[in-house]
Amino acid sequence: MNLHNIASGAIGAINPFQAANVQYSNGYTMAADGSQVPSYIEVDNVQVQVQALTAKELQHLAALNIQGVMKALYLNGNAQGVVRPLGQGGDLFTLVSGTWLVTTVLETWDTGWCKVAVTLQEN
C-alpha cells in the first residue's frame, strides 16, 4: 500500500506539489586528463513535495557534518545520494528555488515512494 499516495492529496491542498527536473546519477566517464566527469539521466517534470526537515533529521545531518540550506523532498519513485559501490554521485533536483543535491535518503519504500534530504547547490 502506497501511503504517500493516500496522504498526498490532503497534504497537497496545503502544500502543493512542484515540478522538478531530475538528473539521476549514472556514474561517470573519464576525461582525457584523467578527471571524472559525472554522467546523468535527465527526467523532466517529476512531481515533488518540498517540506522542512524534522529536528531529528537535522541532528542526523549535523552528525554527518552536512551543512547548508536543506529541505526534504517527497516523490513517487526513487532518488539516491552517493552510492560508492556503484560509482554514482548524488541525484540532482532542479526547482524554481535552485539546484538541490540528494545528500541522504531518509525513507524509501518498495511501494514506490521516497523521502530524501537535499542541500542547495551553487549554480
What average pLDDT do the residues reach? 89
- Main sheet specs: 6 strands, antiparallel, barrel
Gyration radius, rounded: 15 Å
Structural class: alpha+beta
Strand order of the largest sheet: 1-2-3-6-5-4
CATH topology description: Thrombin, subunit H
How many separate domains?
A: 1
Number of strands: 6
Strand content: over 45%
Quickly name the level 1 CATH class. Answer: Mainly Beta
Unreliable residue runs: none
Helix and strand run: HEEHEEEE
Helix content: 10-25%
End-to-end gap: 38 Å
Number of helices: 2
User: What is the approximate shape?
Assistant: globular
CATH architecture: Beta Barrel
If you had to describe this structure to a student in words, what would you say it looks like?
By secondary structure, this protein is of the alpha+beta class. The protein has one domain: Beta Barrel (Thrombin, subunit H), CATH 2.40.10. The protein is built from two helices and six strands. The protein has helices at residues 3-14, 55-63; strands spanning 18-30, 36-51, 70-76, 92-95, 98-109, 113-121. It has a six-stranded antiparallel beta barrel. Strand 5 (98-109) and strand 6 (113-121) form a beta hairpin. The longest helix has 12 residues, at 3-14. It is globular and about 50 Å long. The model has no long low-confidence stretch (mean pLDDT 89).
